[in-house]
Design goal:
- The two termini are 79 Å apart.
- The longest helix is centred in the middle third of the chain and has 86 residues.
- This protein is mainly alpha-helical and 181 residues long.
- The radius of gyration is 42 Å and the shape is rod-shaped.
- 88% of the residues lie in helices and 0% in strands.
- It has a domain of 114 residues.
- Helix 3 packs antiparallel against helix 4 and helix 4 crosses helix 5.
- It contains five helices and no strands.
Length: 181
C-alpha cells in the first residue's frame, strides 16, 4: 500500500506501465478472471438458485391464498348454517302454533259432545304438542351445537394449518360457541 502511495506521489511514470490501467494498478489478467468468475456465478444463481427460490415463494403464496379462500368459505358456511337454523326454529314455532290451534279446535268440538272427555283429551294433545316442540327444539339445538363444533374445528385447522390437541380444541370451540350466541 505504501508502494502505491509512492507510485501515485511520484511524478515519473514507470516505463512498463505506460497504459492507463497499468498506471492505476489494474492487472488485465486478474480483471478478466474476476469478470469470468462473476459471470459464472450469475449464471449459476440464475440457473439453480433463483428458480427454486421463486417456486418456493409462489407455493407459499398459493398456500396463503388457499387458506384465505377456505376461511372465507367456512365463514359463509357458518352464516348459511345459522340462517338454516333460524329457519328451522321459525318453522318449528309455526308448526307448534298450528298444533296448538288444532288442539284448541278439537277441544271446542268435543266440549259439545262431552265436557269431561274433551278436557282430558285436550290436555293430552297440548302435552304431546309441548313434548314434540321440546324434542324438536332440543334436536335443533343439538344439531346446531354439533355443526358449530365441526365448523370451528375445521376453521381452526385450516387457519392454524395443523390439528391442535384436545384441550386447546375444546377451549377454541367453547369460545367460538359463546361468540356465536
Amino acid at each position: 500500500m505504501y508502494q502505491t502511495f509512492i507510485q501515485f506521489a511520484s511524478t515519473e511514470a514507470p516505463a512498463e506501465k505506460a497504459d492507463l490501467f497499468g498506471s492505476l494498478g489494474i492487472d488485465w489478467t486478474l480483471l478478466v478472471i474476476q469478470t469470468v468468475a462473476f459471470l459464472v456465478l450469475m449464471w449459476f444463481l440464475g440457473k439453480y438458485v433463483y428458480p427454486a427460490l421463486s417456486r418456493s415463494l409462489d407455493k407459499r403464496e398459493a398456500d396463503i391464498e388457499a387458506a384465505n379462500k377456505a376461511a372465507v368459505e367456512t365463514e359463509k358456511n357458518a352464516l348459511k348454517t345459522q340462517a338454516e337454523i333460524k329457519k328451522l326454529l321459525t318453522e318449528a314455532r309455526k308448526e307448534a302454533g298450528e298444533i296448538v290451534a288444532t288442539a284448541k279446535e278439537e277441544a271446542t268440538s268435543m266440549v259439545a259432545n262431552a265436557e269431561e272427555k274433551s278436557k282430558t283429551q285436550s290436555e293430552r294433545i297440548v302435552a304431546q304438542a309441548q313434548e314434540s316442540i321440546a324434542k324438536e327444539v332440543l334436536a335443533a339445538k343439538r344439531d346446531l351445537h354439533n355443526e358449530t363444533i365441526e365448523l370451528v374445528a375445521l376453521a381452526t385447522e385450516k387457519v392454524v394449518g395443523k390439528a391442535v390437541d384436545a384441550k386447546i380444541d375444546a377451549k377454541l370451540i367453547k369460545s367460538a360457541i359463546e361468540e356465536s350466541k
